[in-house]
Design a protein that fits this description.
Helix content: 40-55%
Structural class: alpha/beta
Distance between the termini: 18 Å
Shape: globular
Order of helices and strands: HEHEHEHHEHH
Number of strands: 4
Strand content: 5-15%
Radius of gyration: 15 Å
Largest sheet: 4 strands, parallel
């Protein structure tokens, strides 16, 4: 790809969990909003996927949409969400892949064919300084829980979101310098 084309293409972020109906869509929608608020919405594309095909074609879990609504978020794609599975070929185009937990990190790292691709895969919560200090980088899976489980996962997403935005802002600055 010519350097001038590379610089103009959006920075791509993909959030990944197991089925792409709870954690990863929650992360996707919160990050979309945060990038818009940071004035980067036209430079960053955020999407999500799952490591498994169990939920492919299904909408976001209604509890995911409910926790976002409870916390005053606009709809940044939740009502139109359709679950999909992460594909190995995406590692060539995505700039940052955010894994919800260590199991996802392992699966995504196995898909990577090069060190460059492996370097794109990070834990979502590694962008939360408190989670990083504590070593608790797995995002809680709310699937079997009640509203409080979704509230916990939401809190984890929000705590890391600004760190993701800062990381991407720096990456865009580096790309454009």
């Amino acid at each position: 790809m010519a350097p001038e084309l590379h610089e103009k293409r959006p920075y791509r972020v993909t959030v990944v969990c197991t089925g792409n109906i709870c954690r990863s869509p929650m992360g996707e929608f919160v990050l979309r909003e945060r990038f818009e608020e940071a004035g980067l919405g036209d430079q960053v594309v955020v999407d999500s996927a799952g490591t498994h095909s169990w939920e492919v074609g299904n909408p976001a879990d209604p509890r995911t949409l409910a926790v976002l609504a409870r916390n005053g978020h606009d709809d940044f794609g939740g009502r139109d969400h359709v679950a999909r599975r992460f594909e190995r070929s995406w590692l060539d185009e995505v700039d940052l892949v955010l894994a919800a937990d260590a199991g996802h990190l392992r699966e995504l790292t196995k898909l990577a064919r090069t060190d460059t691709q492996r370097a794109k895969v990070r834990m979502f919560r590694s962008f939360d300084p408190d989670a990083e200090r504590s070593g608790e980088l797995d995002m809680d899976d709310p699937w079997y829980g009640d509203d409080s489980a979704f509230d916990q996962t939401y809190a984890e997403v929000v705590a890391a979101a600004d760190g993701v935005v800062d990381h991407v802002r720096r990456a865009l600055a580096d790309r454009n310098s």
